């Protein structure tokens, strides 16, 4: 340990939290050590207050303050709180609180380097904000199996964080499945692996009936419509099984069957209206989701690759269709992993699924199909090697059950108090003091919590070194290019006119 | 409090309000004739100024009294703030003069601190909270209790020793306490009174030493009941506070110690009797509090202006900041006494435990 004593413990202490007073200014998030009862304990400064005994709230004249400052100089005190993280060897919470008066020292970099080093399955996330020479690695196994949430307001560095995570996973030959809501990752170039872009297409043949029904927008309470659609669906399935029709004709067989009932004079007139509704909805489905329905598409799971970022580009798909695609893929992923572990048929490798705009697909206040499967993977994925990463800029709108299943969190800048409270409710290791730090984080700075790191930490996330799309547009630049292009076009036209002898 | 007091207050509200400040409304003098509105400019010149204060408190047990005394003198040279401080904690039997004893301890510490600051930091102006004149002329509480023979003996035997200690002493604590065992044996029948007398001698000795060396000792009082200006029963300070609101000062009056005190001083009688004091009131800003200032010499108008300018330079809200800070630093509250006793762990009934 270094001898950098910054202050001493004051007041009543506990084995998990102490207050201290200092004359030197440490930084929030800085690691400190306390030596007592024959052990050295590591702690993190969670809050700091700077005050003056003389310049109090009772002074109402700036001149008075000016004079006091002139006479007293910068004679301030610094008070803070330290969350005790455990002894430096095993990070076990001590059984005894530090005695008041115990010296508070800045923790030695070498100790921190040891703590943030992951021997097996490391992913380098960045460096400590307060001690920049200390690299922070997280444990990939724990990140994937115990799930992760990346939460931040817009522009705080979410995409960069996800890119760093993905690149780190690819370096370890990982497989990542990204549900790319804004086509941000399609053109990205990772250093350690390839992009495997998957079209957001579904073969209706591979859909479960209820997924098909949902895509056709048959409401849950439309029992008659559901009955006739199911009948037609089963008939089409049977025809395909008997090789009477090909994949391409699957939808057509359903439509033909519906039309047959509509045109059948003996058909129950009472139900004819419902069948017509189903036929109309099927028509609407083809019209609306024609771009994501492909009768020749193979099963999306068969296209997932190892050492690749498998990106499903949902940028051109509306939220409703995204819900259908995401829920379908998530269901399939879980099922195929289960299949593989039971009978070695299915998805052969574990996968880390990253769900962008998770608050849209798994919202807090309404049911969606994706939410159901996200929540299920959050609960069961650990056993079958399906990891989940929920990325959201609006944590308060994100399903709290799913969020609380994310045992790891990377929280970048969050200003909205409701967002902060929501996140805090989902994570027991996020203290009030840490919450207060969230609005003051700079871009790319994050609080990292959970099982993937031995202790909670404030990290400056690495800048992603590959080529990244997305981010804010250079509006001025765009305008400038547009004007220049237009001028060039006019010049070219003018030249062409001259070349043709038009200036005579 | 009995609820009947609320009823009494309501019943007597009109009467009390009518009498309150009634005399002030009826005065037939013009206080402003004695007041000079004077915008005091702050000084740009370099000077060193000190300001000190002291405090004491006690916690009474049935058999003893736990007391704590402290004092601090702050020195400001225009750039840095330094401090001289002193403190004492002990127990004494529950004598009837406890407050006088403690006030005397505090006074000795305050003066010694200022004297020490004056000697070591070349202080140009020494500010005191309270009245130096009052310190000088206030008789010892045991003045009439102690036989003159004993007083004489104490004076003859211990004064030279005290003077020797004070001259060489760097310590700003109580010198008299070194003789307490001796005095207890020698004057057993008057041990308490003898000790108080000796401490009073120490107080006068230190004051005398300081006043002989420096005239720039400025005493400031926030309250005063003196009635030297208008010869009516209302304190001068209250009248100036009511009628003279602007920055400035009152025309000074001069006081001879010789005419104020009938009795002789036990030591340095001629020196103290020859002292002349300048007394005036001032405001260091429009509508700020009136302060009473005493200077231990006959001050000219320029002297007064010079002192006001320097004091204002280190004042906030119309009061010297050094005195304010020293006051805040030294004040010993009852909670502090409780905390100090937690360290000492003195356990005995106070006699008020059942309340």
What does this structure look like?
The complex is a heterodimer of chains A (504) and B (355). With 504 residues, chain A is α/β, with parallel strands linked by helices. Chain A folds into 4 domains: 5-115, no CATH class; 134-197 and 297-461, Rossmann fold; 205-288, no CATH class; 476-504. Chain A is 38% helix and 21% strand. Chain A has helices at 62-72, 109-115, 140-145, 158-171, 209-215, 223-241, 250-263, 269-288, 319-343, 358-361, 369-384, 400-405, 417-426, 432-437, 475-499, and strands at residues 5-10, 17-22, 31-36, 39-51, 77-87, 103-106, 122-128, 135-139, 148-151, 175-180, 194-198, 308-313, 351-355, 386-392, 408-411, 445-450, 457-461. In chain A, the strands form 2 sheets. Chain A has an 11-stranded mixed beta sheet with strand order 8-7-17-16-15-9-14-13-10-12-11. Chain A has a 6-stranded antiparallel beta barrel with strand order 1-2-5-4-3-6. Chain B is α+β, with helices and mostly antiparallel strands and 355 residues long. Chain B has a domain at 37-97 and 112-137 and 211-262 and 273-344: archaeoglobus fulgidus dsm 4304 fold (2-Layer Sandwich), CATH 3.30.2170. In chain B, 43% of the residues lie in helices and 21% in strands. Chain B has helices spanning 4-19, 22-26, 98-121, 132-137, 148-168, 180-186, 191-213, 236-243, 257-260, 269-274, 301-313, 321-330, 334-344; strands spanning 35-37, 49-60, 65-76, 81-92, 125-129, 217-221, 248-250, 253-256, 276-283, 290-295, 315-316, 319-320. In chain B, the strands form 2 sheets. In chain B, strands 1, 2, 3, 4, 5, 6, 7, 8, 9 and 10 form a 10-stranded mixed beta sheet that branches. In chain B, strands 11-12 form a two-stranded antiparallel ribbon. In chain B, strand 9 (276-283) and strand 10 form a beta hairpin. Chain B starts with a helix and ends in an 11-residue tail after the last helix. The mean pLDDT of chain B is 90. Chains A and B meet through helix 1 of A and strand 11 and helix 12 of B.
């Amino acid at each position: 340990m270094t001898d950098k004593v910054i202050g001493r413990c004051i007041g009543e202490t506990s084995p998990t939290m102490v207050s201290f007073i200092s004359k030197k200014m440490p930084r929030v998030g800085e690691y400190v050590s306390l030596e007592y009862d024959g052990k050295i304990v590591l702690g993190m400064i969670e809050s700091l207050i700077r005050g003056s005994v003389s310049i109090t709230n009772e002074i109402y004249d700036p001149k008075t303050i000016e004079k006091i400052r002139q006479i007293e100089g910068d004679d301030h005190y610094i008070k803070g709180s330290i969350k005790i993280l455990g002894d430096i060897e095993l990070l076990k919470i001590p059984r005894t609180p530090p005695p008041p008066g115990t010296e508070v020292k800045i923790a030695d970099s070498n100790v921190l380097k040891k703590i943030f080093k992951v021997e097996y399955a490391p992913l380098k996330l960045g460096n400590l904000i307060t001690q920049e020479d200390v690299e922070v690695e997280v444990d990939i196994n724990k990140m994937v199996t115990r799930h992760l949430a990346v939460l931040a307001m817009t522009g705080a560095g979410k995409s960069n964080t996800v890119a760093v995570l993905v690149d780190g996973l690819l370096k370890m030959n990982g497989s990542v499945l990204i549900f790319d809501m804004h086509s941000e990752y399609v053109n990205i170039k990772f250093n350690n692996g390839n992009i495997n872009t998957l079209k957001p297409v579904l073969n209706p043949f591979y859909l479960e009936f209820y997924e098909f029904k949902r895509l056709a927008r048959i409401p849950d309470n439309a029992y008659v419509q559901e009955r006739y659609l199911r009948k037609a669906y089963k008939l089409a399935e049977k025809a395909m099984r008997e090789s009477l029709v090909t994949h391409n004709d699957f939808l057509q067989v359903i439509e033909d069957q519906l039309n047959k009932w509509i045109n059948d004079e003996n058909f129950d007139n009472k139900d004819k209206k419902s069948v017509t509704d189903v036929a109309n909805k099927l028509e609407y489905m083809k019209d609306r989701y024609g771009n994501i329905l492909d009768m020749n598409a193979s099963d999306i799971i068969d296209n997932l690759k190892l050492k690749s970022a498998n990106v499903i580009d949902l940028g051109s798909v509306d939220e409703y269709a995204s819900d259908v695609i995401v829920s379908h893929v998530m269901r399939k992923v879980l099922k195929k992993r289960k299949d593989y572990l039971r009978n070695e048929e299915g998805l052969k490798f574990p996968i880390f699924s990253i769900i962008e705009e998770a608050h849209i697909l798994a919202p807090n206040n309404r049911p969606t199909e994706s939410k159901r499967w996200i929540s299920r993977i959050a609960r069961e994925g650990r056993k079958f090697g399906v990891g989940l990463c929920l990325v959201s800029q609006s944590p308060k709108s994100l399903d709290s059950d799913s969020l609380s299943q994310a045992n790891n969190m990377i929280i970048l800048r969050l200003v909205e108090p409701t967002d902060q409270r929501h996140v805090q409710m989902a994570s027991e290791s996020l203290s009030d003091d840490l919450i207060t730090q969230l609005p003051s984080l700079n871009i790319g700075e994050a609080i990292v919590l959970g099982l993937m790191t031995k202790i909670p930490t404030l990290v400056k996330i690495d800048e992603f070194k590959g080529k990244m799309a997305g981010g804010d547009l250079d509006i001025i630049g765009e305008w400038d290019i547009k004007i220049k292009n237009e001028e060039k076009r006019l010049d070219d036209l003018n030249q062409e006119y001259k070349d043709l002898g038009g200036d005579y | 409090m009995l609820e009947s007091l609320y009823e009494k207050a309501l019943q007597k509200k009109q009467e009390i309000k009518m009498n309150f400040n009634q005399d002030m409304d009826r005065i037939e003098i013009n206080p402003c004739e004695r007041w000079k509105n004077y915008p005091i400019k702050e000084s740009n010149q370099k000077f060193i100024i000190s300001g000190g204060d002291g405090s004491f408190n006690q916690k009474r047990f049935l058999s003893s009294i736990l007391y704590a005394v402290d004092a601090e003198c702050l020195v400001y040279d225009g750039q840095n703030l330094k401090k001289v401080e002193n403190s004492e904690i002990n127990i004494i039997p529950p004598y009837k003069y406890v407050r006088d004893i403690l006030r005397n301890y505090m006074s000795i510490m305050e003066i010694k601190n200022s004297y020490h600051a004056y000697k070591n930091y070349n202080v140009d102006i020494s500010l005191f909270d309270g009245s130096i004149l009052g310190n000088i002329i206030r008789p010892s509480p045991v003045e009439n209790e102690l036989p003159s023979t004993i007083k004489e003996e104490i004076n003859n035997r211990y004064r030279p020793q005290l003077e020797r200690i004070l001259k060489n002493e760097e310590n700003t604590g109580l010198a008299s306490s070194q003789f307490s065992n001796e005095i207890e044996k020698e004057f057993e029948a008057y041990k308490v009174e003898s000790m108080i007398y000796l401490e009073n001698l120490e107080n006068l000795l230190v004051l005398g030493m300081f006043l002989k060396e420096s005239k720039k000792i400025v005493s400031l009082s926030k309250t005063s009941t003196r009635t030297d200006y208008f010869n009516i029963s209302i304190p001068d300070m209250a009248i100036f506070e009511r009628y003279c609101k602007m920055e400035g000062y009152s025309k000074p009056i001069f006081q001879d110690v010789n005419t104020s005190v009938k009795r002789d001083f036990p030591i340095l009688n001629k020196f103290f009797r020859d002292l002349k004091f300048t007394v005036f009131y001032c405001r260091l800003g429009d509508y700020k509090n009136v302060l009473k200032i005493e200077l231990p010499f006959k001050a000219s108008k320029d002297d007064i202006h010079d002192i006001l300018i320097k004091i204002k330079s280190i004042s906030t809200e119309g009061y010297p900041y050094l005195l304010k800070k020293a006051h805040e630093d030294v004040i010993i509250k009852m909670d502090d006494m409780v905390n100090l006793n937690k360290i000492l762990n003195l356990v005995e009934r106070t006699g008020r435990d059942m309340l």
